């Protein structure tokens, strides 16, 4: 990677830096393919099991379960694309840009990956806001929270409706697809196709600066999508901070003697979910604007043609590898989400363990069915009452 040419001022004989080659290292050739293979082996069965539990095992379906089932569908689709991503990083520097596998990755796999990321953050944002709204409605009935006054009339009634949850999910899918597809089309179709290396005797390869860095138009659209991510992230963070503040006030002003463990469970769930969002999604969206800015500066440079121009390494190769590693971290939520459901949702955990036990021992199915009926009753919607009732419902019926 140290043999790239020195930059020269723009003139008629200079070449764009996009004509240089990305030089993949061990990270791209071995680590990323192995990681995406692991993601496939864990995310596929995990999300199939999660979806089965949400759709077939939980008889009393809450709006939260509707949101999580849509999140599982999104993660399941993502898991089906990971073998192609593993192949791209392993052999993308050997594929030609016009090959069928390269075109599949650019036009099909890349949009699905990014759509999954933004569906995840939007669904979790909506769940966080709806749970916060339910919490402030059903605590301190004698002193309603000021936030209630700003919410639309009938909002709390809609929160308990599964049909409303389904409509929200349809909007989430539409927004994610509508925001991501135009960016990826411009990024992978228009800008990747304009680079022609035939004039200097080089072969157009799939893993190239034109594909991995893109152009100015796709970069500008990507900045808008990144800004939307930070808006959703801040909404989640704000809602959780307000939940913590509301619970703190409730503990001081309400005589609750039996809800201390439940309050601790709610606080733990909030910390775990916020940590997952911060660890998996935040680093990529912090680094991507920096990457776009550096790429824009690099795009201004020009290089003198030479006999080995095709073998010279692009100076941005290491930054591209770092971007792809952080994108992998964002995609890993496909594997961590089922584990998060299992650890934080009592209903989901009980039904999952019961399903696994039924598969191991068919003779215990009758007894297990009776347990299901008694357990799902606890997962119903929030009722009017004191803080202990509300926190018990949140910790049993929803992972938030």
From TrEMBL:
One Pfam family matching this protein: 7tm_1
Transmembrane segments: 35-55, 67-91, 111-129, 168-189, 221-245, 266-287
Chief site of localization: membrane
Subcellular location(s) of the protein: Membrane
Domain (G-protein coupled receptors family 1 profile) ranges: 46-341
Coiled coil: none
InterPro entries, sorted: GPCR_Rhodpsn, GPCR_Rhodpsn_7TM, GPR82
Matches recorded under Gene3D superfamilies: Rhodopsin 7-helix transmembrane proteins
Species of the source: Champsocephalus gunnari
Biased composition (Low complexity): 362-378
Gene Ontology MF terms in the entry: G protein-coupled receptor activity
Location of region: Disordered: 362-382
Keyword field: Membrane, Transmembrane, Transmembrane helix
GO cellular component, one term: membrane
Descriptive protein name: G-protein coupled receptors family 1 profile domain-containing protein
């Amino acid at each position: 990677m140290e043999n790239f040419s020195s930059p020269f001022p723009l003139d008629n004989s200079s070449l764009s830096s996009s004509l240089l080659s990305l030089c993949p290292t061990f990270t791209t050739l071995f680590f990323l393919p192995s990681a995406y293979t692991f993601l496939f082996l864990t995310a596929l069965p995990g999300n199939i099991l999660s979806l089965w539990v949400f759709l077939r095992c939980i008889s009393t379906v809450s709006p939260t379960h509707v949101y999580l089932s849509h999140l599982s569908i999104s993660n399941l689709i993502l898991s089906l694309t990971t073998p192609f991503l593993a192949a791209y990083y392993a052999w993308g520097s050997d594929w030609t840009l016009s090959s069928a596998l390269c075109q599949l990755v650019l036009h099909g796999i890349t949009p699905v990956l990014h759509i999954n990321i933004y569906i995840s953050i939007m669904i979790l944002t909506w769940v966080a806001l709806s749970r916060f709204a339910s919490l402030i409605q059903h605590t301190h009935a004698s002193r309603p929270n000021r936030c209630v006054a700003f919410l639309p009339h009938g909002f709390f009634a809609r929160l308990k409706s599964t049909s409303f949850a389904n409509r929200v999910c349809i909007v989430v899918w539409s927004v994610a697809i509508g925001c991501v597809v135009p960016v990826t089309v411009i990024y992978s179709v228009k800008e990747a196709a304009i680079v022609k290396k035939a004039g200097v005797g080089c072969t157009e390869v799939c893993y190239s600066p034109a594909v991995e860095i893109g152009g100015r138009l796709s970069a500008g659209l990507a900045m808008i999508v990144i800004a939307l991510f930070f808006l959703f992230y801040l909404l989640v963070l704000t809602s959780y901070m307000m939940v913590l503040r509301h619970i703190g006030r409730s503990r001081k002003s309400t005589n609750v003697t039996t809800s201390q463990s439940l309050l601790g469970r709610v606080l733990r769930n909030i910390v775990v979910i916020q940590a997952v969002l911060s660890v998996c999604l935040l680093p990529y969206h912090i680094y991507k604007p920096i990457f776009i800015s550096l790429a824009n500066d690099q795009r201004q440079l020009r290089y003198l043609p030479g006999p080995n121009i095709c073998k010279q390494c692009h100076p941005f190769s290491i930054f591209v590898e770092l971007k792809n590693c952080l994108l992998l971290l964002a995609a890993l939520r496909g594997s961590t989400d089922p584990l998060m459901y299992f650890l934080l949702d009592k209903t989901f955990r009980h039904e999952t363990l019961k399903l696994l036990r039924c598969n191991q021992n068919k003779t215990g199915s009758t007894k297990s069915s009776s347990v299901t009926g008694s357990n799902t009753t606890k997962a119903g919607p929030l009722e009017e009452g004191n803080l202990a009732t509300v926190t018990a419902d949140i910790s049993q019926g929803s992972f938030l």
